[in-house]
Amino acid sequence: MPDGRTTVATPETGQNKSLLATTVLVGTAGFAAAEVTISGSARMGITNAYDTTNDANKTQFSSRARVNFAASGETDGGLSFGASFRADNAGDANSGTAGTVSLSGAFGSISMGDNDSAALTTVGQVDGVGFTGNGDLNEIIFLGEADTSALYTYTMGDLTIAASMGQIDGDTNYTGNAKQAASVAASYKMGNYRFSAAIERGDKAVYSFSDRADAYATDPEDTYAERNDLTSQVTLGADATFGALVLKGRVAMGSGEAYNGLPDEPNGYKTTGTQVAVSATYTMDALSVTAFGAHAKVAYDYYGTDWGMESTRYGVGASYDLGGGAKAQAGLSRLSHDALNDDGDWSDTKMDAGLTFAF
Amino acid sequence: MPDGRTTVATPETGQNKSLLATTVLVGTAGFAAAEVTISGSARMGITNAYDTTNDANKTQFSSRARVNFAASGETDGGLSFGASFRADNAGDANSGTAGTVSLSGAFGSISMGDNDSAALTTVGQVDGVGFTGNGDLNEIIFLGEADTSALYTYTMGDLTIAASMGQIDGDTNYTGNAKQAASVAASYKMGNYRFSAAIERGDKAVYSFSDRADAYATDPEDTYAERNDLTSQVTLGADATFGALVLKGRVAMGSGEAYNGLPDEPNGYKTTGTQVAVSATYTMDALSVTAFGAHAKVAYDYYGTDWGMESTRYGVGASYDLGGGAKAQAGLSRLSHDALNDDGDWSDTKMDAGLTFAF
Amino acid sequence: MPDGRTTVATPETGQNKSLLATTVLVGTAGFAAAEVTISGSARMGITNAYDTTNDANKTQFSSRARVNFAASGETDGGLSFGASFRADNAGDANSGTAGTVSLSGAFGSISMGDNDSAALTTVGQVDGVGFTGNGDLNEIIFLGEADTSALYTYTMGDLTIAASMGQIDGDTNYTGNAKQAASVAASYKMGNYRFSAAIERGDKAVYSFSDRADAYATDPEDTYAERNDLTSQVTLGADATFGALVLKGRVAMGSGEAYNGLPDEPNGYKTTGTQVAVSATYTMDALSVTAFGAHAKVAYDYYGTDWGMESTRYGVGASYDLGGGAKAQAGLSRLSHDALNDDGDWSDTKMDAGLTFAF
Q: Which InterPro entries match (chains A, B, C) (predicted)?
């Protein structure tokens, strides 16, 4: 090895079936243990979507394949460092808006890039259904943050705390202020229970909200509308395991100022938003079944009139573990959107059935 | 290995020169044998193109480098699953329009994503020339299909059958109908012979045809024009090996309805298209030489006048195997385009010389 | 291994901490030793930029993660071939405008793709500062070349020579000529000294110059403005190592024809450009400190008036090696732009502090 490079052994015995995972070691002369790990995931199946607004019923083939790079190393002083991003996000990872770069040690872990906020990381979501997620209607909306963001986490036994901050001096928002968001969160495990809480605070119209801003949206993902107007939110979570049954619940309460969809016409009226989501997953050997329910409501005063909208969602699904990283999964989810004082109600139903693979 | 991860051995012996291929094992705790394999290809050389339409003679450096990910695993029940895509297609692979995801077992193999159609997969093309392909003028045009598509293949000894279907409920075409395409195909090996046949059927103006729609195209790839009007095609193939000589032939006969290039003015006239391609490749040790010839003709009635166009193509090339995955390759191909009842004739000549590498 | 594939050994001993680097072997039956190596880099930290033009002071999180593929093989005749590109450049690597493909042997090495020119490859730059480079103000501007380019290098003991050429018959430039650039260069090592020289020659307005064309640019990178008008440049470099101290110096002298920013109004006046850059880096164990200074001046006759602009840049920085591929780095750089006969002067200051990781 005159050039300082070492090469992977390749014995004739072939693949060791008992392996759980393998790491690809790479590096440069002088590095003790830097490495890049490659993993992947894929899925294939059929999806169906029906929405009442367009009276459209659409069935499609659906497939997806991904590869993830995870690089890690250790300083002489024992700090761990690493980076992780998906191949399809390599361009954004290069500019700091996808994947993450991290440093961790006794002080905890700090990560930069496309982090989930402290709130989302810590509280998380209740269980979803289907091989595609069927619109992820189980999810509550967090305020989010602009990338490049920073996330700090620290674990002391059963307690984990986290704090995050979106990009400093980011692009300005509707009203000319820099978009800025921050959150703090904590979770605590008590035997079979896990409790979590988070506070998020953002500037008016943080970008990640305005993506989904239209109160009269016809896309289910836009249902918790006017949430772009929410500038603070408190989220609570509780998970409980009773033998084969796992229950999860989330509640979020937010407040802010309404814009009525017109960026340059803030009306100053207070907006309030509440979200609830619960799920139950029961596992029998290789089979697990999941059901979830969720509700979101936004209320505000629209030139003297009580206004707002609410969505009610539920879903049921099953997953069967085929072993080796493969699962068969099917799910159905439904969303009903009710615009208060308005006839813009609609509903959307999604179904899927397919296979998911982890490599 | 407290975290369930195992690491690649790195003996001091270095690289084993007798290795044929190596697999990178990755995965997650609980997977028996999921793995991601990395391979690559590259090429470098000089190309020259001359077309009479622009009287343009252009010489250029040409290089290309690719990496491919191939992930695979096996369920407890013995089914194989996998995914494959190129690094440069990672984004499309994530949305199901590049690469493929597959499941295979005793029932055959089903694949979703950016499949070749059953017709193309089974019948295939005659041999081409050059390190770049020189415009792939050896290829006949198949009707194609929109992705995410599904492909099923099954092999019984010397017989292979295949069926494929383009995306269900895809985007609508010119006339407002959903684009839809399907094909069935079979191949049979008899000693040194291989015979194949395929039937394709598509909606009017399936997108993959209209890419090459213009009857008066100046790009050689557009020569088999008005093939966007072809809605069904039958393709036959025969391969024969006589010692060092391999002969291949393909015939395709299609029919459809002409549009005259105006999407909203179908004239209802019947279009017929015929294609023929033949190749001969002779191998002497490391050297192989290839020649091909091809012809395509589209005919239709244009407001009472017989109309159409035809192309005649040929090519010659040589490839020298340098060992280790490297080849030196050079080729020349020429296309003559003859627009019936029109003076829009032109021809195009492409030459290249370079190296191809497989990793 | 009936399919000719060999698999990586995965012993129970886990990761060997003394490893310096590892190679992922891949390939196809029949290849002796083709392989793809994966490596990566990442960085995270804080940046600050202040420019007088906008009186804007901006502080931001900054992170980046990259993965690189390096493929290599060897022909039966002992020639080495390879390809290299970053995951985020996979698309451009597929079209020959990112990464490189190369062949090397006793004749030297020839590379195609997104090469640095012979001048840049051979002379290189003086040392920069900071974990992000802080605008790379240490760098002198080379004329550059359009890709797909070709680069030839040959080393005889202490002497290295190089020649490069941009894409042949590339896109046309402002005046309708094909953009074309070429350079030749040589470097010679004499004990602790290294000397280098390069000559570049390009068509008028080679694209890589016009990117930075505006004489009144407010971006520091545009300071050596009107360099789009430079069509030839001679560059000299000298490096010297005195124990822990490394000194580097670069001088470039260019000439061309001024365009005044209007592509279709060449005024025919001669432009001259001079650049100087020097750096000193002193290393004490894990710590190294760097300072650089640079100056660039462009002068031309603007309708009878002496015109031009100059920039003065300097920077200071420190880097601390944390081991394992990690470094802590901080830097400050400043640019002052002086437009001769004009009041468009401005300055820009950049600072950063962060960590860099190599995997």
A: Gram_neg_porin_domain, Porin_dom_sf
- In the CATH scheme, what is the code of domain A5-40+48-358? 2.40.160.10
Q: Note the pLDDT tens digit of each residue in C12-45.
A: 333 322 222 334 434 343 444 578 999 999 999 9
For chain A, give percent helix, strand, coil, nearest 5. 10, 55, 35
B27 has a chain C CB within 8 A of its CB: no
On the 0-12 / 13-18 / 19+ scale of CB atoms within 10 A, B320 is middle
Question: Which of A214-228, B75-89, B282-296, C94-108 shows the lowest mean pLDDT across its residues?
Answer: A214-228
CA distance B100 to B78: 20
C80 has a chain B CB within 8 A of its CB? no
d(CA B358, CA B326): 6
CB atoms within 10 A of CB A326: 24
Place of tokens 């674990």: A155
| Nearest-CB residue to A32 (from C7, C17, C60) | C17
pLDDT in tens, A259-303: 544 444 445 567 788 899 999 999 999 999 999 999 988 777 666
Decide: B212 and B189 in contact? Cβ < 8 Å.
no
Residues 6+ apart with CB under 8 A from A89: A98, A99, A114
Q: Which backbone phi and psi does B222 adopt, to 5 degrees?
A: -95, 10
Residues B73/A359, Cβ–Cβ less than 8 Å: yes
State the Cα–Cα distance between residues A198 and A119, nearest whole angstrom.
Answer: 5
Q: How many CA atoms lie within 13 A of B144 on its CB side?
A: 19
The token pair that represents B237 in the structure block: 């193939």
Residue A359 with chain B: CB contacts under 8 Å: 26-27, 31, 34-36, 71-73, 83
Which residue do the tokens 């190089």 mark? C162
